[in-house]
Design goal:
The complex is a heterodimer. By secondary structure, chain A is mostly helical. Chain A is built from 21 helices and 3 strands. Chain A has a domain at 2-181. In chain A, strands 2-3 form a two-stranded antiparallel ribbon. Chain B has helices at residues 10-19, 32-41, 54-59, 75-88, 122-135, 212-217, 235-244, 258-267, 281-286, 302-315, 330-335, 344-357, 436-443, and strands at 2-6, 24-29, 45-48, 67-70, 92-96, 118-120, 141-145, 150-156, 176-183, 186-188, 201-207, 227-231, 250-255, 271-275, 294-297, 319-323, 340-342, 362-368, 373-379, 400-406, 412-413, 426-431.
């Protein structure tokens, strides 16, 4: 009896997972054109990975056949499981190709890819077969706009559950419906994403980057991921390419619903008027200028300082994690600015991670209102973004999120330091994985990587990446007893 | 002429009384006892029955009406009644619509309510009237002409004023016109030999912003308004706050309903919304109402407005304005020391009057002091009898005055006899009721005006 009930309940979840795995199996074929390089063939591991993924997907789809109704609370289960399964499937090419034989490391790399973190355990990426590198960048791109958003965009069957699924995955406290139907909303967002990616590929290609590198870096930029095909990251390319990347990282940190809105109204008005966009721009530009001033000196000219400062501000603020320079060598104040930016993060509805500008905007306004209330108890204030009032429940939700974020950051740092890491490295590693940034400071700095970590630390990083990408609630509710009560 | 009024609330009653002088008025009212009161106190015909029912409307020969005024408390009923009337006849239509969104030009490009000739919101016109006073807090009344470039201020002259007791010709008021003086119940258009006396109300016409020297001579303390406290976050309070926000004035709005407070805090910018009861004198003291340059009471409760204004005055507020809905109180309230008392129905009735009397030539008409002074804004057409003539060549009737000329090029002059009225100019004329017929003959191209005696404008 109970088994039947549970089976019925989770059939819809199984169906969704199956569809996702089938899509992923399909995407594993996309790197094939680059997998025949003599001496570094990788078509065999890619096909080998696609087969079991497709088989598992087909089986799950079969289990979930005929059901479309997804219960509201089960969307959390679906989304969390989907990300775990995607990361597992995504780890297969690394293992089968021998790039990362241990499952711990392969899973970390895969999770880092899908969550657009960009933290890597591969010591020398330049010897990895191009097909596998392409898969690595592709996981960024798929996870950037969201694998569930992709699923919603491609499947009409999810129907009403679609919005819940998107909410459970979306970066930021709200999901803007840019179209009447949820599915059209998901499609519009993906189209904006594809268009911007294509634009960057063309720019980089025009500047002389190879198509392979241009594709890889554009995937990693628009997804605010951070995987590069070079050990020196963007430092291996020309200043012009770095400036182009700076611009596109900045764009990737903007709410994509704003791009769609601007396109729909044929004017940039919706973007300029958005208070989150304004603050995002001010913080990015302001911290870029501050970094420039701090790092300019006898060893670095002003123009170079500006290029590195702007690039790094944009890279950390949007949680991309590319580097043009070893910022671990920068002055402490500059490093701390980057540390603060890594907590602030990008905009709601962007592909970036961390706490998000909108949450800070609400927290700041709420604090100002609280000051006014201390002085004048009768004053009634509403937290407003532009002309829109932020509902009280959302304000509380944001305060709670910030608390949880700090709590998880503290716990993560504790576990990492218990594995033997120094405090700076553990704090920055926890922050960089939870915020989906990638490189941190110290042991996990931009020119080193996460390879030095113990297995426990690596798994901690994987968990933090997932928690950060799904913005805590979606994963954490699964651990509340109320969730499993029937 | 036949006018149909739908809804006999306070506004409907005022309008019915005003129109009954010129029209055969039919009043449709749902509540039988209210209909009875209207029928007994006004010279109108009342039809008890549902506001918008086709059966009732056919009883009043809806199709042959000249004017339909819908003043029920329901916006939608008013809109439907007017649109239906317009569709079935050639009558003019006036609807009371409180919700500002219905009058928004965004509504189907502004075409949705094309069948309504005047969309009247008593709360909006009241708020606008108050906002005019905020620009000149020392005045007890203010009107603007010529796109706001010309102002007519009504000032109460205190005994200590420098101008008291001297003939006007002996005082240099600067570039203004002492247009009219009200003394006790009568209004006169002064000559140089007339003197101003303490307690007079003086009407000063000036280019906007240039009246200050004259005001000083008339004993007015002119000071900029920096802090305003508004009591009541209803439609008037909300509208007023919206009109005043963003002008560098510190605005406080006190409202007793918590949810309403939250709504107001959501839509207003830079306005401090306080949750509290205006009847609580301690609250008014604590929130610094005494330091306010203006205290404006706009709640729906006359007694509260009266009381709170008195408390504010006592605490030291520089000017107090109260809206009072019950007509019976009006003359009493001004005696107890509230500076300006406004009645939404009277203001609305004046707006309707202005709409009905207005034409392509008579652009604006204001009735000051009830009916004792008319201020008219005429557009001079080429066919107008006075067009192209200098003022000293025209024989103006006694008790009238050309106060200002707004040239087509945008300049405003306070004319002397040598200035001419050119086609395309706009002339602001002040006239006593006795001079109105002659003025109309001079300025309408047909030489025939629509003289009437209205119910009144603003009451002080």
């Amino acid at each position: 009896m109970m088994i039947t009930a549970a089976y019925v309940r989770y059939r819809a979840v199984a169906g969704g997972l199956g569809a996702l795995l089938l899509i992923l199996a399909g995407t594993m074929l996309l790197p094939l054109p680059w997998s025949f390089t003599p001496g570094a063939e990788s078509w065999r591991p890619l096909l080998l990975s696609a087969l079991p993924t497709a088989a598992a997907g087909g089986l799950l789809r079969l289990l979930g056949r005929g059901t479309t109704e997804l219960r509201r609370r089960d969307t959390y289960l679906l989304v969390t499981l989907a990300w775990l399964l995607a990361a597992t499937a995504g780890a297969l090419p690394y293992m089968f190709s021998g790039v990362l034989p241990s499952f711990t490391n392969a899973f970390f790399e895969s999770m880092s890819g899908f969550t657009t973190t960009g933290a890597s355990v591969i010591t020398d990426v330049e010897v990895v077969p191009p097909g596998i590198l392409f898969w690595r960048s592709l996981t960024h791109w798929l996870g950037g706009m969201g694998i569930m958003v992709l699923l919603v965009a491609m499947l009409s069957a999810l129907g009403m559950g679609g919005l819940q699924v998107m909410k459970a995955e979306a970066p930021g406290p709200t999901v803007e419906r840019v179209a009447t139907r949820v599915r059209e909303t998901a499609q519009a967002l993906w189209i904006a994403y594809v268009v911007l990616t294509a634009a960057q590929v063309l720019c980089l290609w025009a500047l002389g980057m190879s198509l392979f590198d241009a594709l890889n870096h554009s995937f990693a930029t628009l997804a605010t991921g951070g995987f590069s095909t070079r050990n020196a990251s963007l430092g291996a390319f020309t200043p012009a390419m770095q400036w182009v990347t700076t611009l596109f990282m900045y764009l990737a940190g903007v709410n994509f619903a704003l791009f769609v809105g601007a396109f729909q109204s044929r004017s940039p008005g919706p973007i300029w008027r958005d208070p989150e966009f304004r603050l995002y721009t001010w913080v990015t530009v302001g911290s870029g200028v501050a970094l420039t001033i701090l790092i300019a000196g006898p060893k670095m000219g002003l123009l170079d300082a500006l290029r590195h400062g702007a690039f790094q501000a944009s890279s950390i603020m949007t949680t991309t994690g590319f580097a043009t320079h070893d910022f671990d060598q920068w002055p402490w104040a500059a490093k701390w600015i980057l540390g603060l930016l890594s907590v602030i993060g990008a905009s709601t509805g962007s592909t970036g991670g961390a706490v998000k500008i909108m949450r800070f905007l609400v927290l700041i306004k709420q604090a100002a209102g609280e000051f006014a209330r201390q002085i004048q108890p009768r004053v009634v204030r509403q937290v407003k973004l532009g002309s829109r009032v932020v509902p009280e429940e959302l304000v509380v939700n944001i305060q709670q999120f910030f608390f949880l974020y700090m709590a998880v950051l503290g716990a993560g740092t504790l576990i990492l330091s218990a594995t033997g890491l120094d405090l700076l490295s553990s704090l920055s590693a926890a922050g960089a994985t939870l915020g989906n940034i990638g490189p941190g400071l110290g042991v996990v700095g931009p020119m080193t990587n996460y390879n030095a970590l113990t297995d426990v630390a690596t798994w901690t990083g994987s968990v933090l990446m997932l928690l950060g990408r799904l913005e805590l609630w979606t994963v954490l509710v699964l651990f509340s007893p109320a969730f499993w009560r029937r | 002429m036949r006018a149909i009024i739908i809804g006999a609330g306070k506004l409907g009653y005022s309008v019915a009384r005003m129109l009954s002088k010129d029209y055969d008025v039919y009043v449709i009212e749902q509540q039988p006892d209210r209909a009875e009161i209207v029928g007994e106190t006004l010279d109108v015909r009342t039809i008890p029955g549902e506001w918008c029912s086709p059966e009732v409307l056919s009883q009043v020969d809806f199709a042959n009406a000249d004017l339909v005024v819908a003043t029920t408390e329901v916006d939608e009923v008013n809109i439907v009644a007017c649109l239906a009337a317009k569709a079935g006849s050639k009558c003019r239509t006036i609807a009371r619509v409180r919700n500002p969104e219905y009058a928004s030009p965004r509504w189907f490009g502004g075409n949705a309510l094309k069948g309504i000739d005047l969309i009247l919101s008593p709360e909006r016109v009241t708020a606008e009237e108050i906002a005019k006073l905020v620009r000149c807090p020392e005045a007890v009344g203010a009107q603007y002409f010529a796109e706001g470039l010309l102002q007519l201020l009504e000032l109460r002259v205190p005994p200590h004023a420098a101008a008291v007791g001297k003939p006007l010709s002996k005082i240099d008021f600067g570039p203004v016109l002492i247009a009219a003086i009200q003394r006790k119940e009568s209004v006169l258009i002064p000559r140089g030999s007339d003197t101003i006396m303490a307690g007079d109300r003086v009407f000063v016409l000036a280019r906007t912003g240039e009246a200050a020297p004259a005001e000083a001579l008339l004993g007015q303390e002119t000071r900029p308004v920096r802090k305003i406290a508004i009591l009541g976050g209803g439609r008037i309070g909300q509208r007023l706050a919206r009109l005043l926000e963003g002008q560098g004035i510190s605005l406080t709005l006190i409202e007793k309903d918590r949810q309403r407070c939250q709504h107001l805090a959501g839509i207003l910018n830079g306005v401090e919304v306080l949750h509290g009861d205006g009847a609580d004198a301690e609250l008014l003291r604590e929130e610094g109402v005494g330091n306010a340059d203006m205290f404006i009471a706009t709640t729906a409760d006359d007694k509260l407005n009266l009381l709170a204004s008195l408390v504010a005055k006592d605490l030291g507020a520089y000017r107090t304005i109260a809206t009072i809905r019950r007509m019976e109180f009006l003359h009493l309230v001004e005696r107890v020391g509230i500076d300006v008392v406004l009645n939404p129905q009277v203001i609305s009735a004046a707006a309707i009057q202005q709409f009905l009397r207005g034409s392509s030539e008579l652009l604006g008409i204001h009735y000051m002091e009830g009916d004792s002074l008319h201020v008219l804004e005429f557009l001079i057409s080429p066919e107008c009898p006075v067009a192209g003539r200098k003022l000293h060549q025209v024989t103006f009737p006694r008790g009238s005055l050309v106060g200002g000329i707004f040239r087509a090029d945008g300049s405003v002059i306070l004319p002397s006899g040598k200035d001419a009225l050119m086609p395309g100019d706009r002339a602001v004329i002040l006239a006593l009721p006795g001079a109105r017929a002659a003025i109309d003959r001079l300025f309408f191209k047909s030489g025939l005006g629509l003289f009437s005696s209205p119910a009144g404008g603003k009451s002080q």
